[in-house]
Design brief:
CATH class of the largest domain: Mainly Beta
Number of domains: 4
Keywords: Coiled coil, Transport
CATH topology of the largest domain: Elongation Factor Tu (Ef-tu), domain 3
CATH superfamily of the largest domain: Efflux pump adaptor protein, beta barrel domain
Strand content: 35-45%
Mean pLDDT: 81
Radius of gyration: 51 Å
Number of strands: 22
Number of helices: 4
Helix content: 10-25%
Organism: Camelimonas fluminis
InterPro entries: MdtA-like_BSH, MdtA-like_C, MdtA-like_HH, RND_pump_MFP
Pfam family, one: RND-MFP_C
Largest sheet: 6 strands, mixed
Low-confidence stretches: 12-19, 36-46, 377-384
Order of helices and strands: HEEEEEEHHEEEEEHEEEEEEEEEEE
Structural class: alpha+beta
Distance between the termini: 117 Å
Family: Belongs to the membrane fusion protein (MFP) (TC 8.A.1) family.
Shape: elongated
């Protein structure tokens, strides 16, 4: 057998500008491993919270301005009427006239009352004559009784006659006073100073006792009277402040306080008359002037939040509340007193200082981390 010598490996030749296969594989592996090493060394970025609008809950009085239209009326009005019946012969005042206390504003025909006074005075004179006669008779019987020249029955009869005559004189004097009063009642006088606001008589008319013929507004004070709907009063149990201004000249203003709220609605308007007592009203606010009033209605301290913060959990109203320590949200049930156009009045479920989400509530879930957006200047969840 012929044996051939083992073949020696040829020396590897390296071409200029080319790498060996081993070095090529090693470089490729390192290139692939570098990103992995970099990923292992880099820390994962912290997850940012969902941006939401947040506001801090504040407690206070909820106030709302209600604009109404009304008129100026007298705080106190007086109706003048004759005490007797008769035919009117004179009316000396008209609507708008200023009247002083004691001034005559109307008169009745006094003929009948003068005749009654004349008759009463004549009856008084006759009664006084009878009294003089009775007194003389009694004086004579008294002297005779002392001397023993008369009897006891005659003495007693003279005494009774004197007493009867005395009573007749007193009765006649009373009738004279009554006739004088009736004559004085034919003149209608104002008991207080004021301004005539209404009249219902003309000369020649016949009036009855107690029939109001002239109405006067006393000068002590003025009211602005407004017709307020029931819905504006039924939910408000607080205080009322009113700013009143003339409708044709808003620069003329006055402050006032609610003096009286009617317990029964007006049959025509179905609204409740509210009387506002004006404080130092200007002279331009005359009786009957049309005014506009801004009724500031305030309630006791409660919590209100923007309407956009309201959601619900099942069938119960709820809001998203932010935990300031962890910046996470939780859903909290609330009790709502009422729903206003842009706010919700809350009675239970929130406390002053709570952070409530007002924008971005659609995609929140319990425990989610949130990031507060900058709050616009003046924004608040407090009372409106």
């Amino acid at each position: 057998m012929i044996r051939f010598p083992a073949r020696q490996p040829l020396p590897q030749q390296h071409l200029p500008g080319r790498s060996s296969p081993k070095r090529f594989i090693s470089a490729t592996a390192m290139a692939l491993m570098l990103p992995l090493v970099a990923c292992q060394e880099a820390k994962p970025p912290a997850a940012e919270g969902r941006p939401v609008g947040v506001t801090r809950v504040e407690a206070g009085a909820v106030a709302s301005d209600v604009r109404l239209s009304g008129e100026i009326q007298a705080e106190k009005s007086v109706g003048l009427a004759f005490r007797i019946n008769g035919r009117v012969t004179e009316r000396s005042v008209n609507v708008g006239d200023r009247v002083t206390a004691g001034q005559v504003v109307a008169r009745l025909d006094p003929t009948l009352e003068r005749n009654e006074l004349t008759a009463a005075q004549a009856a008084l004179q006759a009664a006084r004559g009878e009294l003089n006669t009775a007194r003389n008779t009694f004086a004579r019987q008294d002297r005779l009784m002392t001397q023993g020249f008369t009897t006891r029955p005659r003495f007693d009869q003279a005494l009774r006659a004197q007493e009867t005559a005395q009573a007749a004189v007193e009765n006649a004097e009373a009738r004279v006073e009554l006739a004088r009063d009736r004559l004085a009642f034919t003149e209608l006088r104002a008991g207080v100073s004021g301004i005539v606001t209404a009249r219902s008589i003309e000369p020649g008319e016949v009036v009855q006792p107690g029939q109001v013929v002239i109405t006067m507004a006393r000068e002590e004070g003025r009211d602005a009277v407004f017709q307020v709907p029931a819905r504006l009063l039924e939910d408000h149990a607080g205080t009322y402040r009113v700013r009143v201004a003339l409708a044709d000249n808003p620069a003329v203003t006055a402050a006032g306080t609610v003096r009286e709220v009617a317990t029964q609605a007006d049959p025509g308007t179905r609204a409740f008359p509210v009387k506002v007592s004006l404080i130092n009203p200007p002279e331009a606010m005359r009786l009957g002037s049309t005014v506009t009033g801004v009724l500031e209605i305030s309630t006791p301290a409660i919590i209100s939040i923007p309407a956009g913060a309201l959601t619900q959990q099942g069938s119960t109203p709820a809001v998203w509340v932010v935990d300031p320590a962890t910046s996470t949200v939780s859903l909290r049930n609330i009790d709502v007193l009422r729903f206003d156009p842009d706010r919700v009045i809350v009675v239970h479920g929130l406390e002053p200082g709570d952070l409530v989400v007002t924008a971005g509530i659609q995609a929140l879930h319990p425990g989610q981390r949130v990031r507060q957006l900058p709050t616009p200047a003046g924004a608040s969840a407090g009372p409106a």
